[in-house]
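Pilot study result, target chain (427 residues):
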Amino acid sequence: MAKNHFIQHDDIHCSFCGRASAEVTSMIAGAGVYICDICIQNSVEILRKNAQPYSQQKRATFQDFTLLKPSELKRALDQYVVGQDEAKRAMAVAVYNHYKRIQSESLVGHLEEVEIEKSNILLIGPTGTGKTLLAQTLARILDVPLTIADATTLTEAGYVGDDVESVLSHLLQNADFDAERAERGIVYIDEIDKICRKSDSASITRDVSGEGVQQGLLKMLEGTVAGVPPRGGRKHPEQPLVNINTKNILFICGGAFDGLERIIARRMRTSTLGFTAEESTHIEADVALFPHVEPDDLLKFGFIPEFIGRLPIITALEPLSDEAMLDIMLSPKNALVKQYQKLFLMEGIELEFRTDALQIVVEKAKQRKTGARGLRSIMEEAMLPVMYKIPDMKNVRRCIITRAVVEHGAEPEYLLTFDEQLRKVAS
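Predicted structure:
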């Protein structure tokens, strides 16, 4: 029987251990190097031994995780999210309590058997007020995996669409398929208001994307062990599943809740009927009423009582003022103006935005009614022609974006280098 399945020369030696081909069972040839079967086996054993400490290291890392205090979380959020102070304080406290609950050992004493419930959060506010940004920023500050799901794509199990458990599959992927790390992550479900019951009346057709999804999310929000496909998609009978315990996963749900303000206004007007007509206050249906939301309002909006109970922290976000939207473009670490200034600095050019130019951007964003989301697209429309020309321009040291650039697509003001100014004067 041949000693070497691949290389049959007696003068061949393993490049790693030095064994001759006659001393081993097989020898694999590479680009000028050889490796024997013994070295391959040893490498496999080394990799297998290193895999376990790696997972243990991740467990130890979370135990040693330094949890920021609510005030510290709030200050960290302030660097990226403009305004919404009440929402940031509420989320900072909820997140702190959630991860403190996971991290801390059981108390010894008369409170030892008291179990702290999850602090799942419901964010209510108009489009573009920063709901998604808050969740993304928190996950980045805490260094935990995050997945963002769209509730409009979810359907009840067995129907066309995504199973509710697909959000856990995406979380597992974002955690590099580390189930234990995924179980400490954050799930943000956007457009949660779109899964309300379509009507209170009975229907012959099943509400698979409304109440059916609410029912499917109940156990997940509370805490359950769910088997999810590791690579996404729907479950398959022959597919191996990864068990994910949702007990310690923080769920944040957000939505615009268009129409909820009318329900709140109706309730608040009704509460004033006991007074005289002169004393009763006229309450308009406006998003400013969102901070006054109560569970009964969400029930009338179309959520089932069990679902409302799984989201104990309800926080309303305020509509962005003109000053806030202007600040969004200037103040945060990743502010739009700072991003464009960095891009231009790579070309060796200073970029300046006049205040009235930024005010026009705000006005256009308000017209689109998309909140802060519209700022980027409007800025891109105005800056695209400028960014197209800038790389070809020579001897420019400063570019000034005026109101006319944003409003009419006019040319910016350019300041030339000192040498170029001298050349023009001389000519």
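One observation from the pilot: The longest helix spans residues 37-63. A full batch analysis is planned for the follow-on phase.
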